[in-house]
Amino acid sequence: MYKDLFISNWARTAYLDFGGDKRDTMSIDGGEDFDYMADDGDIANVMVDEVHGGFFDRDRVEVNVDYDLLTRVTDTSSAQARKGKDIQGIPWDRLHITRQNYRRTRIEQYKNYENIPSSGELMDRKCKQMEKGGKYYEFQYNTRMVKPTILHFQLRNLVWATSKHDVYFMSNSSVIHWSATSCTLSEVLNFVGHVAPLERHPGSLLEGFSRTQISTLAVKDKLLVAGGFQGELTCKVLDRPGVSFCTRTTFDDNAITNAIDIYKDQNGNTRFMASNNDSSLREYDAERFQLLNHFRFPWPVNHTSISPDRKLVTVVGDSCDGLLVDSRNGKNVASLVGHLDYSFASAWHPDGLTFATGNQDKTSRVWDVRNLSSSLAILKGNLGAVRSIRYSSDGQFMIVAEPADFVHIYSTKADYKKRQELDFFGEISGVALSPDDESLFIGVWDRVYASLLQYSMRRELGYLNCLL
């Protein structure tokens, strides 16, 4: 089996043992300790086997270069980046390969994960990438104090921003808050031990959970919801002490919580939807934490998103075709036909007329509810599956994240035909726009170069950024 440059020992083991299907990877290693996709799949080691000269092989670096210097943790500011420092702090001038050559090698050798063989290769032949050259967001800061992690290699919604300064993300067994203003970290929830609710709600498991393996996360409107590998849902209201609600949605063998969508209903009440591998979508009231709806589908549900008018839900999962369903009863309104593999991402444009889906065939597709016979646009990536999609709140941009190295920002005003490409190295744990669209955050997982990248919306007069 192909050795992916960035995939971990655990992920490769899952791929070999189970054909890579997420429904079979509920247990990481069968032991007491969690394994968070860390070993020989990170930047510090990938070149030992794949490229001439070890990236940080002590015996291969220049004699006058100290090994510890190469791996020293340093943040990078926009001013330093403008002077030529690598945004991730990678010392290319001291290595045996240039950034340009390594980028070429990565693109040539990266193996896209597929459930349907050759889906990405077929789309590569069918589609051309949209024009690069957009300049919508500019690099602001990279902090290596932040150490994002990934538990499941197909599930990458693990970074959320509640303001342009406040970011929540998964790091090992903890949900961590990062303040970009004070540059401080604080632990919000730790799942390595016992977590139990302080409040009493019908259906809540008062005994709570122990050693929950978190597969997905959502933070919005002062609500944090974490989903687990065994169908667990843990809810915390950010301005209240402790946990408010714990439940296990299913005892099905395929119980992974794949995605969570938090939103306001038409009356302004907070709701959330949980997409699960037991082929179900569940909607909860976040005020009383009661189950409102339970919709079942023919295949595991990987992601859902609700339309701005709250009438329609996009449902994608372990099927080449997606669905558009009625939010009141789960009945099928239309099928979304065109993708060649399984989908793991979806998002609605604020206008409520268009939405997007992301697939392991390396493309995202844009759809118009007024004509779903074919997609409006097919947007091809560089390396692999589309794992996350976000629209800006003003609808001007669509953010598309690949599993590693690339985030694309498409201009909706240009009909998605122009894009900005953010280029870095590392597995992407999640992407998040601040509610005001001013900041874009990208979680990068790597043993040495794990970090949080921050970009700021570009302005015609750069000095305005200092006033924000």
From TrEMBL:
WD repeats lie at residues 336-377. Transmembrane segments: none annotated. Keywords: WD repeat. It comes from the Eukaryota. Pfam families: WD40. SMART domains: WD40. Gene3D superfamilies: YVTN repeat-like/Quinoprotein amine dehydrogenase (2.130.10.10). This is Uncharacterized protein.
